[in-house]
């Protein structure tokens, strides 16, 4: 069964809480969702397993993993084993920031969207309860949308790309409530920057703290945490 | 020996005529050049061999090859073996266009530059004797520069990225003359979209035609062509 191109979307799927929610939101809007994850040398592969589970449970039409052999870049605690993931709050842009990550992810998503004939790219960035990364800000997303429409054959020929970030202005608690209302199984998701070998969250890193705060404010237990 | 960050540059190096010229131009400006090539599933690997030779001969400080495992994207005659490279002129955006290629390349270059502390990204795009790709236009480059300064920690903290495209408004003949004046050995470069197994140019594809026209107009023989 084919769908109209304007009902196809590429959804960036990390396997975390936010991306599981945007998949559900895109499906709610009626999009045929082409989920895209990245193996970019992140220090734990648990998030790719989580992404596959989330894609399957969330009704993605397909799920692809793009491999980026860019290990020489380094520079982030998420990819460089020589740097430690902080286990307490820090100020400023944190060491877990991966240089230009969202730009690379969106660029690959754009290329795939162009081939699919899709014009909607969903990304689960958030400017409220976020980690202070520059490429999660509204002005960054607007600049990428402008770029996308200049960069591509589809843009030049009248197609109109949209960078869709429906979580941008939501708190973590609001994101969780929205997802629960759409039946998202957050037990499949993994947000932690530094899980143990069994894939269990550390509970102390920035991502774990934001997630715990979100579930606490939403007034529901986190199903991913075995008590 | 270390150099000031403002004298480091990332240079996108395909191994073709244009990228060999920008490496020479960046070196002339005194930059320590970090050359970057991509293995993205292009149908011939000859250009990566050419890039390595050009980097060495052109005085690059280092040369890295980023591997992009994005074969599922398809959609271009340069990566998809099911599509033929045209051997005669075509109109419109050609089938050799790789979706979002320059966006992906510049995004990875941006990430590397941020880690290196470089703020200058050199790219050999050209808006005169070019193949009609949307991501070779001045407005595209300007949009990427805006994006780069929003996307990055270095941008937010006051660093200022520059997308440097010194060939943008030159004809192919002017590019060749500039390179020859800087000692570029064009015998090492490979421009062809569809070389034979021995790495010899086909002479008929769009890239070969533009190159031949350039050398003819410059009034010099192409050293890459064995007579």
Describe the structure.
Two copies of one chain form a homodimer. Chain A has helices at 17-28, 46-57, 101-116, 138-151, 153-156, 172-181, 206-218, and strands at residues 8-12, 32-39, 62-69, 120-122, 162-164. Chain A is α/β, with parallel strands linked by helices. Chain A has one domain (5-218): HUPs (Rossmann fold, 3-Layer(aba) Sandwich), CATH 3.40.50. A five-stranded parallel sheet of chain A has the order 3-2-1-4-5, with helices on both faces. The longest helix of chain A has 16 residues, at 101-116. Chain A is globular and about 50 Å long. The interface between A and B is large, with 45 and 45 residues. Strand 3 (62-69) of chain A pairs antiparallel with strand 3 (62-69) of chain B.
The description of the largest β-sheet of chain A is:
5 strands, parallel
Assign an overall shape of chain A: globular
Helix and strand sequence of chain A = EHEHEHEHHEHH
Query: What is the highest CATH level, the class of chain A?
Result: Alpha Beta
Cα Rg of chain A? 17 Å
Order the strands across the largest sheet of chain A as they lie in space: 3-2-1-4-5
How far apart, in Å, are the first and last alpha carbons of chain A? 43 Å
Return the CATH architecture of chain A.
3-Layer(aba) Sandwich
Could you say which structural class the secondary elements and strand pairing of chain A correspond to? alpha/beta
Number of strands of chain A: 5
Q: What is the assigned CATH homologous superfamily of chain A?
A: HUPs
The percent of residues in helical segments of chain A reads 25-40%
Mean pLDDT of chain A: 87
Question: Beta fraction of the residues of chain A?
Answer: 5-15%
Largest protein interface?
Answer: A-B, 45 and 45 residues
Question: Which blocks of ≥5 consecutive residues of chain A have pLDDT under 50?
Answer: none
CATH topology of chain A: Rossmann fold
Give the total of domains of chain A: 1
